[in-house]
Amino acid sequence: MKNKVLLLILFFCAITFCSCGGAVKKPLRCNLDAIAELKDRNISLPNKSANEIDNYLKTSPVWKLIARMKGKLDHGAAYIAAKSRKAIVVTYNSHSARSGHVAVVSGKKQMAYSNSFKAQVPYAWGSVNGEDPQLTLLSLQFAADKEPQMNYYVYVGE
């Protein structure tokens, strides 16, 4: 009897799995990965969505917005600051219910040219599509058409 019940449970689980196309969508967690990465550096961010983190950074006295150059993100300034071991966060705020994206800029690898941004961009530590976080070129984490809604912030706290 127990074997039949277990087989039925297994059968229904298999049907459910197959009806989903066999894919289980991972939850987006870029915010949690950025929070953890900065926590390792004794810097805290609020446990909020990417959009809410961007809103927090805009008003926080310990974070400073890196100014744009001619309306574009200053990738070079962000990279130089990250290379000098300053904490740099890059955000995309969707300004809607749909969450944006957040990552931590790295100065460990040289900047590289991005065809989509048409500029040299830094590498950033973060998760893409709910996958485990990794160090990737900024343009693999952020679409260039989102640049008007993106910002770099440098940590100026102690």
TrEMBL record:
Residues 1-22 form the signal peptide. Keywords: Signal. It comes from the Bacteria. This is Peptidase C39-like domain-containing protein.
